[in-house]
Amino acid sequence: SQPTHPFAGGVFPKLLRPSPDAFAVGLVALMLLLFLAIRFPALNAVSPSLRCSHAPLLAVLILTSGLGVIFYGGLYQKDAQLVFQSRLLLWGCFFVILSYFLDFLPFFSRYREFLETLLSYRFPFLVISAILLRFWLIRSSPQPVIDVFAIFQGGADALLKGQNPYAQLYPSPYATPEAIQMGYSAEPTFIDDYSYLPATFLFHLPSYLLFGDIRYSYLASDLLVVWLLLKISGYDFNPLFRPILQTLHPFSHSSHHPITHSPVHRLACEWLALLYLFHPRWSFLLEQSFSDPLLVFWAAAMTFYLAQGDKDKAAVCLGLLMGTKQYGVLLSPFFARFQGIQARHLLIALGVATGVCLPFILWNPAEFFSDTFWQFLELPPRYDGLSFYAALYWGLGMIIPSWTNFFSYALVTAWAAKRKSGYLLVFLSSCALGLLAFFLFARFSYFQYYWFITNFLLLAIAVILGEERKAMLTQKDRGKRRKGRKKEKVKD
């Protein structure tokens, strides 16, 4: 039978119909502006003294936080009080983010010393607010009507009971009276597949065991991603903790913790972290329980270790990324092109991914491969997806071959193979373009896939800021050496 157009009714319940429009507009605008935030020649990464254009970062942050106020909300929040508190706090965060403009206004310089202590609390306030907003969203939406949440919850529960999560039947969240009233079909009543790879349990099990909800693991992963972004970008944490130290020890002098780099660079690092925390659709992403935040954490950890020159640990992170979701393997060709990567590192990544999956393969090989691989070959295309595959079908009536996305991905891989290896920006931009080429023509393309891609752009900006930090330190060292030479000449 022919599928029904997603905006003509019949496929989505009424509550869901406006969502694809909001996702598409927000994502396209965000991706274009993030590309502008990186100076385009920097994508070639042929110079170690690259500079990040700081102003677009603040502009993008204000845009995304503003859109976040408009787009805030899950589909199944039930606690009106927590929703009201969240919206109020979001407005507060938006105005605090707007206050970053004050740092660049000339007339503000005369009041800066008076307000410096107050302004130093902005970033901690915004990070704590982002954590609180996520906590409130989970509390206000305890049972989202989506199979992802039901499968993750059921899988963690089954594993804690010593049962194979890939061999279980999970009650369908769409067969409940509430879901049927919203327009979902009552059939089937059970879900017979756990389609996610086993590395998800590394985060889900502790969260489910401690709090009874796997989504708290995403809160933890978000905090870890923010920390990694700050580390990669060369952020100095001393000024961040200075207000706390002065509160605990009011007679301590600020010279004990001197600022060791440019205030503008420090602000740019903070904006970068806030861009991740205040994405316009973070609330939807968290409520629906998509596992892509875990992928971003492993990608950020891999980037951090590559920046540190520790390729063994970077390979372990790639292996855990591949063991979390199937399309993680698409990053391996670009990883292989990075300077200094040998066959040994690829074997480490493959060994880690295999090691994570092997216990479940041995437990029940038929169920494991059926749930995680074979079913995707049998599923019909999703014509309600965010892809050219769906757009061409509805716009021109065309059904393009299912291998088109592999072909477009192969073209990007061949292009990346000809580029200079050894630069993180080349690696990250190649990953983003390769994934984009794959998902734009895929039979299954969802919002969270493109969100995952945008985070490679954030990592690229973090690398640029890190290079800027190194260049500043080098310049300061040269200045100290010159002063030392002048003093020696004066003595002579």
Structural overview:
By secondary structure, the chain is mainly α. It is 65% helix and 1% strand. It contains 21 helices and two strands. It has helices at residues 19-37, 54-71, 80-98, 109-119, 122-140, 147-160, 177-182, 201-211, 216-232, 238-248, 263-277, 282-287, 292-308, 311-322, 332-336, 343-363, 365-378, 388-396, 404-417, 424-440, 447-491, and strands spanning 170-171, 190-191. Strands 1-2 form a two-stranded antiparallel ribbon. It is globular. Residues 1-22, 38-52 and 248-261 have low confidence and may be disordered.
List key phrases describing it.
single chain; two-stranded antiparallel sheet; 2 strands
Brief summary of the model shown:
The protein is 65% helix and 1% strand. The protein contains 21 helices and two strands. A two-stranded antiparallel sheet has the order 1-2.
